[in-house]
Amino acid sequence: MHFGLLGGLTMQLDLAHHSQRWLGLQERELFGWARRLGRGINTAFDVGANDGVYTLYFLARTPAHKIYAFEPSQDCVRELEENLAFNNLAGDQRLEIVAQMVGANIADGQTTLDSFVSKIVPPCLLKVDIDGGERNLLSGAKQLLGMPGIRWIIEVHSKDLEQHCIEVLKKAGYRVKIVRNAWWRHVIPELRPGELNHWLVAYRDEDKPGDAQTRDQDREAVSRHP
Length: 226
Description:
The chain is built from 8 helices and 9 strands. By secondary structure, the chain is of the alpha/beta class.
């Protein structure tokens, strides 16, 4: 990878489908927020990890001491593990891969965010991309939503789901911002299915990342994982 959040790292890419990732254009609208919200974190959750873009970012570009990657697809987990190996991160003790869905209840093949509350050391950043399951995920995160030092990036694909997530987050005391597609997506679209493709970023006013100390921690994290 030459550009973007993962510049300098290696991923297995099919350029017929991942050319924007290679060029650093995939989800470019989020780059600033990912860097800002990732500053100073101790814990990170990649919910809907897929082949590991954000898992790699948390491991190599943030100071997080523990990362949880949730991915129920065996094929995606296999690709994730290959991408970890490409970057000498296979077996990294900071990472735990959870091969389950995240929803409202604990069931066969499914867990909840609240079941991980005791393992979280704030600040904690959660990136969520589960294609419509966000309502159930938040329903299973009532304790987590009340914790201090929790930051969110949630991808949404419908207006109804976007509004529901905003209401839940605001009720829990978060400041919520909608990150919309850049104007140039009319020329270089990501061609995602669904009614819309927005992201919600959420954090509490008392947890404003970006001070000098956390920037120093970022530089230290990057120097550890070139």
